[in-house]
Write a structure and sequence with these properties.
With 197 residues, this protein is α+β, with helices and mostly antiparallel strands. 35% of the residues lie in helices and 34% in strands. It is built from 4 helices and 7 strands, in the order E-H-H-E-E-E-E-E-E-H-H. The chain has helices at residues 19-26, 32-35, 122-157, 177-196; strands at residues 5-14, 40-47, 57-63, 69-80, 84-91, 93-103, 109-119. The protein has a 7-stranded antiparallel beta sheet. Helix 3 (122-157) runs antiparallel to helix 4. The longest helix is centred in the C-terminal third of the chain and has 36 residues, at 122-157. The two termini are 26 Å apart.
Length: 197
Amino acid sequence: MASNDYEFVTRWRFEHTTPEEIDSILTRGEDLARWWPSVYLEVKKLAPSNADGTGARFELYTQGWLPYRLRWSFVVTKANHPNSFAIQATGDFVGTGEWTIVAAEGDKVDVTYDWIISADKPLLKYLSFIMKPFFSLNHQWAMERGREALELELRRVHGEKDVPAPRGPVPAWKSGGIVLFVLAGAGAVIWALKTLL
């Protein structure tokens, strides 16, 4: 595995819901910036779904806790609603993602997201050899915000009043910018020493 290759598996469990409700929220890509605004800054729908649920295409502008933003797009490549769908990503990272949505005991639903990507954005691509743990933590942070935001969206879907707004994006001054700057500097020094010696 190259230093800029990443594989993440995220697992969420929700109560008092159904796979149909979860699938309905996750498959409306155009709504991501509304209910998951801490990560999805802008989303544009470029193409609708085909009759079989595939083919929907979206362009996205996203961020996490660390102070970099990503431009990428995805197309739905596989659909077995309400239990699963897969996407192909291109842009600042390239790879595949697959959502699996399964009813558990009672009224619980287990959601799994398998995300296998290569980072092509220069910052991620060339600093992954030293920054990989921090980029991975950034992904975990983003997915935890997604779990929180989806719980709030389910409460709204169920008609609950006074549901708080989801967390918005992290302002640059509160982000991990200092950490990223220090580690990038350390990485540059290590690279320079290895090159010169």
